[in-house]
Amino acid sequence: MANYPSKLFEQAVNEFAKLPGIGRKSAVRMVLYLLREEEEIASLLGNTIVKLRQEIRYCKHCYNITEDECCEICASIKRDKSIICVVEDIRDIIAVENTSQYNGVYHVLGGIISPIDGIGPNDLNIEPLLNRIATGICKEVIMALPATIEGDTTCFFLYKKLSNFDIDVSSIARGISFGDELEYADEVTLGRSIINRTPYQANYQMR
Amino acid sequence: MANYPSKLFEQAVNEFAKLPGIGRKSAVRMVLYLLREEEEIASLLGNTIVKLRQEIRYCKHCYNITEDECCEICASIKRDKSIICVVEDIRDIIAVENTSQYNGVYHVLGGIISPIDGIGPNDLNIEPLLNRIATGICKEVIMALPATIEGDTTCFFLYKKLSNFDIDVSSIARGISFGDELEYADEVTLGRSIINRTPYQANYQMR
After folding, report:
1. Which residue of chain A is at minimal alpha-carbon distance from B44?
2. I need a labelling partner for B206 at 20 to 30 A (CA). Which of A93, A130, A164, B185 fits?
């Protein structure tokens, strides 16, 4: 273990090194940066982090983050409350919102079923989703989960649970990404994209 | 620009993205991590950052960081004040200290001469170094600067300034690193390591 020149410096390095993707060398670099730059940068960062945890809450409907009881999307009268898009994470809401192709509301699971990481259905916001659907406002659920084994497992689990309700359940389309060459696509993706081929006209309109 | 679900969230992402080596995606990941984990982690990180800037000062002798007037190394009676090791950065002090091979004191330049980045001799702690040497306590200066063009330029500049004093000036040895294969060493390193060859016995003792 390195000998740091000051206890406070060492503590700051330790705290930064807890962040995801940050090792001790990067942590030292960040602390030195904060010491070197204007004091305002450090105080703003520090105070924002403290405020973040104190003031940010989860939306009571969809578990998106918000500073109020209810997030901007759920509170908006322009959004279609009859469609719920189920996502793993808040980052996925940001990604879907950036497409400007979706006008419904969301539901954040807060993870996906992953036995290896010890995450089961009870660790996710699945029960609140079922309660939301039980109110009868929702007519369609779109599952926008990762295209991984864990994502597929979670989709299957949700599909089973949702089949008790009289709603449409769909999953976002899997296929060849825009700009991809067929020869470099993996067999599973290319195989599925043939099985799930879409009529050309419909595909054309979507663009 | 992405639409973030909350102003405070966006501000936190912006502040994190100012850190060196951190892009917006990593910043979002960090903010979500702080929101997900226990509140203590966020408050500890935030408060440490604020305290860092308020309480950490630079040692009045060597510009190492410290919480007192004078750093631990300069304050220690066990360290040999007649040898000064000149380094670019506080990280280099940590690196040299970890070797346990050095018992003198340090002097942090706070950078190296780099015209491309607009850093000249006046931006560095060179004047304080010369004042320190003028007191007559120092008998030897070891320059431990990066093996780059900028590092060599800084060494040369310092050497010229230091030649006015009756002291020994040396630079840390450049050569083949421990564990390196000769065939993969670059020509400059290998060439210099032949020119600056050391008597075998001395080399043996050093290990």
Report:
1. A15
2. B185
Q: Do A48 and B12 touch (CB under 8 A)?
A: yes
Do strands B104-108 and B140-144 pair parallel, antiparallel, or not at all (unpaired)? unpaired
- CA of residue A161 relative to chain centroid, distance: 21
Cβ B46–A41 below 8 Å, yes or no?
A: no
pLDDT per position as a tens digit, A145-191: 988 889 989 999 999 999 889 999 988 888 888 778 888 888 888 88
DSSP A55: H
Q: Count residue pairs from A and B with Cβ separation < 8 A.
A: 173
What pLDDT, on the 0 to 100 scale, is given for residue B207?
44
| pTM summary value | 0.75
Considering the segment(s) A80-172 as one domain, its CATH architecture is 3-Layer(aba) Sandwich (3.40)
What residue has token string 């599925």?
A192
Q: Determine the residue among B3, B19, B38, B96 to mutate to test chain A binding: the one whose Cβ has the most chain A Cβ atoms within 10 Å.
A: B19
Position B80 scores a pLDDT of 93
- Asked whether the beta carbons of residue B11 and residue A48 sit closer than 8 angstroms, the reply is yes
pLDDT in tens, A2-59: 677 788 899 999 999 999 999 998 999 999 899 888 888 999 999 999 998 888 889 9
ipTM for the whole predicted complex goes beyond 0.85: no
Pick the CATH number of B68-172 from 3.40.50.720, 3.40.1360.10, 1.20.1070.10, 3.30.750.24: 3.40.1360.10
**Sequence spans of domains, chain A:** 7-55, 80-172
* CA distance to partner chain A, nearest, from residue B71 (Å): 7
Chain centroid offset of residue A58 CA:
13
Half-sphere exposure of A174 (CA within 13 A, CB side): 22
Alpha helices, H only, B56-199: 72-75, 90-99, 126-134, 149-162, 187-195
| pLDDT(B177) > 90 | no
Q: What are phi and psi of B81, to 5 degrees?
A: -75, -5
| Distances, alpha carbon B202 to alpha carbons B140, B172, B182, B198, B206, in Å | 20, 15, 21, 7, 6
The architecture in CATH of the region A7-55 reads Orthogonal Bundle (1.10)
* Cβ-defined contact of A20 to B33 (cutoff 8 Å): yes
